[in-house]
Amino acid sequence: MMKIVRGRALLNDPVHNKSTAFSLEERDRYGLQGLLPYSVTDIKKQQQRVLAHLRSKASNLEKYVYLNDLLERNQRLFYRTLIDHIGEIMPLVYTPTVGEACTKFTQIFRKPQGFYITPADRGKVLSRFENWPENDVRIIVVTDGERILGLGDLGANGMGIPIGKMALYVACAGIHPDHCMPVMLDVGTGNQALRDDPLYLGYPYPRLTGQDYLSLVDEFVEAVQYKFPDALIQFEDFSSQNAFTLLDRYVGSIRCFNDDIQGTAAVTLAGIHASCRITRKTFSKQKIMLLGTGSAATGIAGLLLSAFRKAGLSEAEARSQISFVDRQGLVVVAREKIKPRIQPFAREHTAMDFVNAIAVIQPDVLIGATGTAGAFSEAAIRTMAQYQEHPVIIALSNPTSHTECTAEQAYRWSGGRAIFASGSPFAPVVLGERCYYPAQGNNVYVYPGIGLGVMASQARLVIERMFLAAAEELANQVTTAEIERGSIYPDLTRVRAVSLRIAIRVCQIACQEGLAGVKLPDDLGTHVRALMYEPDY
Question: For 1-41, CATH number?
Answer without folding.
Answer: 1.20.1370.30
